[in-house]
């Protein structure tokens, strides 16, 4: 479904929304903080965005759809870093105080202002091309697991493995550029349970006792993430009689899959009879979320998605941006799962009771959070 211009709140948010929902998981500051002085948490995150700028500049430099791309890419990097320095000096500048939504929006707005519409398109296309031939193999491996609980865990691990393909992480972007990514290798190298937030056993229990009527899945990245992680899971839901709505971004940002791209991916994976490896897809719907960032504020989604989601009884928010940075503690009127890999060492707040005193941790951290 196409997105309209007017945005509305996601209908499954707990009401009243004003007192039950905040779009950012970690507070960068508190009311008692000096409004003109950056907090240690703000500085930590501003540095994180600053460190990611070179990978964005490099992608922009190679964008053949933009005239004088190297010059404009250098201008982007200089202006964005200057914005970050401004915010360090005065947190109220550039629409602050800062949070992850603001910092992402400033970056995307600046790229679009300079004519860069999709600087990661080439790498997305390459990763999609690599993942498509593997889809059937991954599905067959899952289908061969007779034990339902083990099959479910394998599907969830596949989502984690696919979600590693995230070029918003400076460290992973560098590793990807150097070595590429391997879905099977990622599956094998996942940390063992219990994960840093691990509600999988509760989800497994619910899975065994009920079949949801409709699931809305907010998807994340192109390539292995959507094709080898999310789609096998969505296919399993379809097999159980659940209608599935996949909500994808309206506009490109980083390597997130967009609504048009997802339509194309699904069309390539279906066979001549419209089946997804033998599974009927009449219950599979693709929705434009209306979003244009790697994070999402659920008070602002497309009317079409809101209409489709109004009677859903399961919501899945996947990925570091949507599932963790902005909606880890989002309270919904139905079952909800927040699932993703914490790929930045700085994002170590997940299991800290006092978020303000969070300290960096090394390595990926796996989150599976059920509400």
Q: Helicity range of the residues?
A: 40-55%
Q: Per DSSP, what share of the residues sits in E-state strands of 2 or more residues?
A: 5-15%
Oligomer: single chain
Q: Look at the structure and give the mean pLDDT.
A: 87
Largest sheet, in brief, is:
7 strands, mixed
Q: Low-confidence segments, ≥5 residues, pLDDT <50? A: 167-180, 346-365
Could you spell the SSE succession in H and E letters? Answer: EHHHHHHHHEHEHEHEEEEHEHEE
Shape: globular
Q: Please tally the helical runs, counting DSSP H or I stretches of 4 or more residues.
A: 13
Termini separation comes to 28 Å
Measured on Cα atoms, how large is the radius of gyration?
Answer: 20 Å
- Main sheet strand line-up: 2-11-10-9-3-4-7
Structure classification: alpha/beta
Report the count of strand segments.
11
Structure notes:
- It is a single chain.
- By secondary structure, this protein is an alpha/beta fold.
- 45% of the residues lie in helices and 12% in strands.
- Helix 6 (148-163) crosses helix 8.
- The protein is globular.
- The chain starts with 6 loop residues before the first strand and ends with a strand.
- Mean pLDDT is 87; it is low at 167-180 and 346-365.
